[in-house]
């Protein structure tokens, strides 16, 4: 669960990080917009505190991820995204059309949620699962664009 904005300074201190305006702004941005890309976080932070370099945001994201305050997710073919929900081995649903991402609880039971058919001797403690499909809004939009039409010869076609 994402920490409340009032808790952000304490979260940083507990993890041995200095409290800075940039770190607080990134945490606020992540609380408001989970699953954001670094560029998305940069835009929100810039609107929040004014001038801030893209590199400063990348540095904060790296520091917060390194300390386990944020989780970095990188679905195939997508830029890395970040979230504040850490440590519970949850999974994600990603819309193939608009890219929207939402959390979904563990596939089955406790972490790692899935058992590898051959663990090759590894002590597996986490499984990363990404479900792909269309979000409800994109699915509705897609269905409304598929209109049945008849060509000149009277044959049905879908466009």
Task: Characterise this structure.
With 159 residues, the chain is α+β, with helices and mostly antiparallel strands. It contains five helices and eight strands; from the N terminus they run ααβααβββββαββ. Helix 2 packs across helix 3 and helix 3 packs across helix 4. It folds into two domains: 85 residues, Arc Repressor Mutant, subunit A (Orthogonal Bundle); 72 residues, Ferric-uptake regulator, C-terminal dimerisarion domain (Dna Ligase, domain 1).
Key structural traits:
Arc Repressor Mutant, subunit A; 2 domains; 3-stranded mixed beta sheet
What's the arrangement of secondary structure elements?
Elements: H1 8-14, H2 21-32, E1 36-37, H3 38-49, H4 54-66, E2 71-73, E3 81-83, E4 91-95, E5 101-104, E6 130-133, H5 136-145, E7 148-150, E8 156-158
Parallel strand pairs: 4-6
Antiparallel strand pairs: 1-3, 2-3, 4-5, 7-8
Helix pairs in contact: 2-3, 3-4
Portion in strands: 15-25%
Cα-based radius of gyration, to the nearest Å: 21 Å
Write down the secondary-structure element order. HHEHHEEEEEHEE
Strand segment tally:
8
| CATH H-level superfamily title of the largest domain | Winged helix-like DNA-binding domain superfamily/Winged helix DNA-binding domain
> How many H/I helices?
5
> What is the CATH topology descriptor of the largest domain?
Arc Repressor Mutant, subunit A
**Looking across the biggest beta sheet, what order are the strands in?**
1-3-2
**Residues in helix, %:** 25-40%
Q: Which CATH C-level class of the largest domain is it?
A: Mainly Alpha
Number of structural domains:
2
Going by helix content, strand content and strand pairing, the class is: alpha+beta
Unreliable spans are 147-151
